[in-house]
Amino acid sequence: MRLLRKSSLSLIAILLVALAAHSQQDRQLTQGPANPSTPQANRRIALVIGNGSYANAPPLKNPTNDANDMADALAKLGFNVARGIDLNQRQMKAMIREFGQKLKSGGQGLFYFAGHGVQLRGRNYLIPVDASIQSETDVEDQGVDANLIMGLMDEAGNALNVVILDACRNNPFSRSFRSVSSGLAQMDAPSGTLIAYATAPGSVASDGSVRNGLYTQELLKNMAVPGLSIEEVFKRVRVAVRSATGGKQTPWKSSSLTGDFYFSGAKSIANAIETKPPAIKAPTAQCFTNDPNVGSIDRQAYYNWATTRDTKTLEAHLKDKIALLFDCPSMDAERLSIAFGAISVLVARYVPDANCFGGDAGVVATDQAGHKSWGLSKGAAGMRDNLQWKTVTALNCLSRAQQAAFYADVSVAVASAP
């Protein structure tokens, strides 16, 4: 019996040594120091991944620098940062799942990814460095579905989450795809979440020629400014990137935050969730001076209001909102076409049945770039009239419960136009 016990202990010791050695082999996985004095509700937790050294795709210069600089900046801003550089699929999924577990203890979560990302059938996939993609099915098998991050955040039920995807470069595997969609697809932000993209859904951003990509460069600069709300940070980034690229790259975001969040500054991050949030103004608020409430991006307020109104009232308000946006003199054709594409995809996702639209399969397509291109060809008035028809028609194909959610999402999309 004593000999058996001694042998068992020896076996356990050997296994522990082997596990420790295996953990050393995982390349460049680092964990920032925890701050045990921070209250659980106000913890700031971040996962930063940068993939640039691809084995079977064009290597990228910026992601490693972008991720390292972002991780360092977040650590200085009080985040407990986990960092992964040039990860394979197993490593990416392991770090993402560990991140999800940490969020279950509460606090604010931030996920940042720089590297190759592709969309396939309306879903976004982040590409590990070891992926060898020869066909569309390989994307699902060897990529990391961005919905994994969103699902873990939603499951955690923590107060606030931010997802930043600097992964909107040209699809390096497009020759292997039956149909090619540029950039990333728009994802709907779950409650209490902001999703930010380096450029508009369906568009692409190039890898930079200096240390950081343009988007992350501007993001790092504005995150460090004290007192800027997260909405103001991304607005400044969008303006700077559009200016630097002559309008060719327009950063985009989807948000369901209900209050203010600050990367840096004296205001407490606990103010991110408020019982009675103030009116939150969108970048297009100047288009709605006759009705400032239309410029709000408070989804919950829109939803609550819509649940107490009949269908005809919702129809009238949707048509008015869309008219205010597409008749706005400060909105150029490019910006309107981006908004048109985004809202058109939103309609298609709520009502995927072409029969609702008289059998017009084009209406229920989720190709945002295709909608954008079509809108550009029709001009502002054509986009306005088409979008009014689509949203009102869709509204009447939805249940009463769905109508309120649809109204809220379209309202936020109108107010969030670039």
Task: Give your account of this protein's structure.
- The protein has 418 residues and is α/β, with parallel strands linked by helices.
- It folds into two domains: 26-272, Rossmann fold, CATH 3.40.50.1460; 285-415, no CATH class.
- It contains twelve helices and ten strands.
- The radius of gyration is 23 Å and the shape is globular.
CATH topology name of the largest domain, in short, is Rossmann fold
Main beta sheet strand tally, sense and closure? 7 strands, mixed
**CATH architectural group of the largest domain:** 3-Layer(aba) Sandwich
- Write out the strand line-up for the largest beta sheet, numbering strands in chain order: 1-3-2-4-8-9-10
Radius of gyration: 23 Å
Query: CATH class of the largest domain, please?
Result: Alpha Beta
| Spans where pLDDT lies below 50 across 5 or more residues | 1-9, 14-38, 174-180, 266-284
Overall domain count? 2
Order of helices and strands: HEEHEHEEEHEHEEHHEHHHHH
Structural class: alpha/beta
The best one-word shape is globular
Into which percent range does the helicity of residues fall?
A: 40-55%
State the end-to-end CA separation: 74 Å
- The share of residues in extended strands comes to 5-15%
How many beta-strand segments?
10
Mean pLDDT metric: 79
Q: Please, how many helices?
A: 12
Task: Pick out its properties.
418 residues; Rossmann fold; 2 domains; alpha/beta; 3-stranded antiparallel β-sheet; 7-stranded mixed β-sheet
Compact summary:
The chain is of the alpha/beta class and 418 residues long.
